Hints:
This protein has 354 residues and is α+β, with helices and mostly antiparallel strands. The protein has 2 domains: 2-187 and 331-353, Porin chaperone SurA, peptide-binding domain (Triger factor/SurA peptide-binding fold, Orthogonal Bundle), CATH 1.10.4030; 206-312, Chitinase A, domain 3 (Roll), CATH 3.10.50. It is built from 12 helices and 11 strands.
Amino acid sequence: MLGMTLKSESKVMKRQLAVFAAVLLSSAMASAQLVASHASTATNTQSAFATNSIQPVGRPVARVNGAVLTDRDLQREMFAIFPYARQHNGNVPKAMEADIRRGALKMIEFDELVYQEAVRRQMTIPPERMSKALADFRAQFQSPDDYKQFMKDECQNSQTVLRAKIRRSLLIEALLKQEVQQKSVVSIAQAKAYFDKNPDRFLIPESWSIQTISILPPANATPDQLKEAKKRADEALKQAKATKNYEEFGVLAEKISEDDWRVMMGDRHAIDQTKLPPEVMKILATMKPGETSGLIQVGQAYTIVRLNEHIKPGMQKFDAVKDSLRKELQTKRTEELRAGLDARLRKTAKIEEL
């Protein structure tokens, strides 16, 4: 479950600092991101959702080197993974419940392991950083009453407890920044080296950028239905031929086309020619950009194609892909570093799931 639960540092910090501070949606529900909500887990009548009649009360669910993690911690992390649960009385889809619970459990264990490692390294939080975090935390509440309710429910009305929770979050953030975020940065030079070593990934196949208007008879159409479809197709062709540009063809597609692409102005974007039906490819090969085809019959369906661009095969330019490539490589490296950190910390830890 590491792929699902070991999130980026920014998401972890957002969850861990703000989750404390969510606005109380009711006297029994806090909407926050770090110490997520106190949403009721009353039985939901929607059959698609798993029901939990037991309200979290601080029951231990795991021990990490002796530190106790509770059902409250687990529920908060489940809400962080699946926030829509708050809209369903704290319940999650039955089909997803086991995976979400397992992922949430691994995540709270990981957080605790990271926190303990930060303490072991004697990492500290500068006073000014702590003060800002406290102020940011307090500012998340919509009213003083929400803040008071949170302090009562989560911190025993103790500023010391609150500071400890925030300090824990900041230490987790600091260690992840050191061990993952800073090490996962991918430079332009590294991205270029990957680009040069993997040319096949950046080949541009010969493709055709097209819009379509399709007339689709029903499945198992009768002869009369096929005749009616041909009549509609002929009328569609007259209207399509009268269009003068991308926009006019697209507006017409939205009005009369019967395929799913009508909501996109009929725009199929660039399609690899190997994925086009032979009947369509034969016609496209004779067209110029801006032209509209005649009726093309594919099976029992009819389509009209507007050619917007014929894209010749070639290589993408590095400048065109460098930003997305760096992001992709950095995401992959982040996941690898997180998984590696989790494995190292677990190797010497004593973890009991209760």
